[in-house]
Amino acid sequence: METLYKALKKYVPRVRKDKRLLAPPARTVDVYSELCGSKLTLDAEIVDGRVADVGYRVRACSLGQAATAIAAQRAIGMDAAGLARVQTQLEKLLSGSSEPDAPLDWPEVEIFAAARQHSARHGAILLPFVAFQKLFANDDAPGGGATEGESV
Questions:
Q1: CATH number assigned to the domain with residue range 1-138, chosen from the 4 options 3.90.1010.10, 3.40.50.300, 3.40.1160.10, 3.30.43.10
Q2: What is the value of pTM for the model shown?
Q3: N or C: which end of the chain has fewer CB within 10 A?
Q4: Is the pLDDT confidence value at 48 over 80?
């Protein structure tokens, strides 16, 4: 747990202040975790199917904040398939079903293995990934734009 707390101290301050993007060109989605009440508004500019810029408003526990900080930094340049792959790796890590020493596209998400036993917090950790899925889905839809909230 000490490793987790050190990592949280590193990542959480990165998203304490909101960083919003203008719409358009950015698209916006709101997601929340029903179990813990964590909320995330994620803005992303998607150009040629890849994340070009990320903004956010995070009202989540430290785990949700850290996940958002990591995703906001690492998502730049990624497409929907790459982000979905990272989400699947994280879900397996949280559920304990990942192979031992399985490589992670984003090694820093390994910190969330310490939250495996706290399933009520898994939704907060997954918020940025659910938000990116929705943003990419809306990018493919005619008109794109803002979307209604979705729970995790």
A1: 3.90.1010.10
A2: 0.89
A3: N
A4: yes
